[in-house]
Amino acid sequence: MQQASDFDLGYLLVLAGRVVQHATDQVPFEEGLGSADVNALYELHVHGPIVAGAFAQLLNVRQSTVSAIADRLESRGWMSRTRDTTDRRMVWLALTPAGEQVVQRAAVRMLPAVQDVFGGLTPGAAVALRALLAEFVDPWLAQRTGPRIDPAAMVPQQHLPGTVLV
Questions:
Q1: CA-CA distances (angstroms) from residue 44 to 97, 102, 136?
Q2: Could you tell me the residue ranges of all domains in the chain?
Q3: H helices of the chain, where?
Q4: Burial (CB count <10 Å: 0-12, 13-18, 19+), residue 6
Q5: pLDDT score, position 2
Q6: Tens-place pLDDT, residues 113-162
Q7: CB 16 within 8 A of CB 58
Q8: Which of 2, 17, 46, 144 is the most exposed, having the fewest neighbouring CB atoms within 10 Å of its CB?
Q9: Cα-flanking dihedrals φ and ψ of residue 91, to 5°?
Q10: What is the structure's pLDDT at 81?
Q11: CB-based contacts of 130: which residues, under 8 Å, 6+ apart?
C-alpha cells in the first residue's frame, strides 16, 4: 500500500509543478523573453554561478540545449560564460547585473500568478508546504549545486505585503 501512496504523492507533485508552470507561462514578459528564458535566468539567480552540466540537470534539458540557452542569454547581455581555470572542459554560467535586473522585473510580474495558485492556502499551510518541499528538494539540489539561497529574498519586500511566497 505504501508504494501506491508514494506514487500518488509523486503524481501530485508533478501536477502541482504543472499548475505553477502554467500560471507563470501566461505572464507576459519583455519582448523576446519567454518563460523558458525566465526560468533559466531564475535558476542562475538562485544557484549561480553554476557549471553547465548542473544547470542542465536543474532545467531538465540536454547539455546541447544549455548551449543554445546560454547563446541566447549571453547575446542579450544577461549571462556570462567562463571556462574553469583548472578543468577547461567545465564552463561556469553566471548572471550579469543586467540579467539580475531582468530576474527582478520578471519576479514582480510573476508574483500575482504564483499568489493566485497558492491563494487557497492559509499562511500556515503555505509555510508548512514550503518547509516540506524544501526538506525533499534541498538535498537533491545541494548534491548538484551547493547551498541554496532563499528565493523570497529576491523579490522586493514592498511587493509582498501580507503574503507568503512558497
A1: 12, 12, 21
A2: 2-159
A3: 2-25, 35-47, 52-59, 63-75, 97-118, 123-145
A4: exposed
A5: 52
A6: 888 888 889 989 989 988 988 888 888 888 877 554 444 444 443 333 33
A7: no
A8: 2
A9: -120, 130
A10: 92
A11: 164, 166
Q: Is the pLDDT of residue 74 over 60?
A: yes
Residue 52 and residue 117: Cα distance in Å, rounded?
Answer: 31
Write out the H or E segment, with its range, that includes residue 94: strand 91-95
Is 93 within 8 Å of 70 (Cβ atoms)? yes
Distance from C-alpha of 97 to C-alpha of 45, rounded to nearest angstrom: 10
CA distance 144 to 140: 7
pTM: 0.73
pLDDT surpasses 60 at 164: no
20 Ramachandran zone, left/alpha/beta (phi>0; psi -120 to 50): alpha
Q: Quick check: bond before 49 cis, omega within 30?
A: yes
What is the CATH code of the structural domain delimited by 2-159? 1.10.10.10
C-alpha cell read off for 52: 553547465
Query: In the chain, what's the furthest Cα-to-Cα distance?
Result: 52
Q: What is the pLDDT of residues 78-127, one digit of tens each?
A: 999 998 888 888 889 999 999 999 999 888 888 888 888 888 899 899 89
